[in-house]
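Handout, section B. The chain below has 519 residues.
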Amino acid sequence: MGTLANILGVSFLTFISRVLGLLRDILIFSAFGTTEINSAFLFAFSVPNLFRRLLGEGALTSALIPVFVDEYRKNGKEEAFCLLNKVASRLIVILLLVVCGGILICLLGMESEWFNSRWRLSFAFSAILMPYMFFICLGALFAAVLNIFGKFLLHAGNGIWLNFAMIGALIIGYFYPESWRIYWLCVGVLVGGVIQMFSLWGGLKRMGWKFHFNWERDQRVHEIQRLFFPGAAGASTIQVNVVVSRALAHSVNDAAVSVLYLANRLIELPLGLFVTAISTVIFPRLSQLEVDSQKSLLRKEFNRGMFLMLVVIFPATLGILSLDRTILNLLFLWGNFTEKDMALVLPVLRVFLIALPFYAVSSHLLRGYHCKKNTIWPMTISIIHFAINTLLALSFMFWLESIGIALANLLSVIIQTILLYIGLQKLYEEFHIEIWTTRFRNIAVASIIMAITVCVSDHILSLYLSGKKHGIISVCTNIPLGVLLYFGLLYIFEGRKRLHDLEIIWQRFVKKIKKSKAH
């Protein structure tokens, strides 16, 4: 299956997962609004995700993939799986220690009089959710290996299980007293994590892998450790930014964490739908080309990934900005989520949307460094990013509250993207980005025309319709209108000849789908 075909397959499953995640968040905010309980749960839920980035899909994955690919190419699948056992054994021991230590710290925090009720609730929920960290970090390791063998879809659809488990827990919770619902939600998280890990474990077993505890040291393990520690500092800094932002927000008021979470979740739909899909598919391919020393193909594949990312993320950003109030009204104005809550979320969402293209570009630039096994420069830039974000957040939060924290995120990610781009261009000539001129201008112009058209159309509909009826009709008409207009303009600007390579890959994807259906 070709690059674009894999991206489309991963995007489809990611889309299903994100839609279910959106439904999950609608139910959460309908049940709890932007209350102290919801903010405490959401903050607690971010802690396992910090370690997932540190010990799972972030640093460890980036360190493992180039070394694993090299081992597999030189010594075959059996030796590569032996290397996986050595890495998994170490990860299991580390995770057990971290989970036990984390639970102990949370229990002490619950009893401490130094913290207010909001923080004590967060400690209580964190203690319950700590084991989730064990499952998702191991699952991320297994997913990285499956991606190397081209089994992208199993990983892409894995998030669906978590969302199903959490939605099911919320539904069950509605039959119990209101004070019990949040604990049912915590149970749903744990059940989802167990299913996620064992589904990926099963995928590897079907490929012939058998887990054996192996603590032996060798040169490959040492190489992964050498790449991991600076990579861990870089990857953890990114997620630490999120946790620190939420911790600062937790100190502002009861609603701030919930507001930041919801705004961030709404931008994760386009970010996860295509950016994550591209990174999932492109990174193993970049690593393989680097191992084979195919610099011209490496450059072409890197630029293709950047173009495919921008061709979707830029119009998605402007499109959501055009319909932000309508989308929020339609999706979240239910139950305990009120007009007052929506007024708090809207300005934060707009700041995050402006940051969205920078998050996408920086994510792709990082893959260029990682396939070269360079984790020092990204780590340095991540530390700078963290420092700037924290200082700006502390400066803005007292007079702009959650908007100030979002603004700090925006300014710091812009600086991070610029530094990553400059460093990559200076260090590696094969990563020279070729699409910033004509092709980027085409994307920008088509996106702006589309956004203005959608904004005007939504305003006209609001003159005749209101409430949920306006939201349903506007979303169902303006989103298809925007997609058709944007890609139509892009086709005109780019020309058939410029898009011919994408058409060929699309045709191959359709043939693959037909063959799979026939079987």
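Note. Residues 406 and 478 are 28 Å apart (CA to CA). Compare this with the example in section A.
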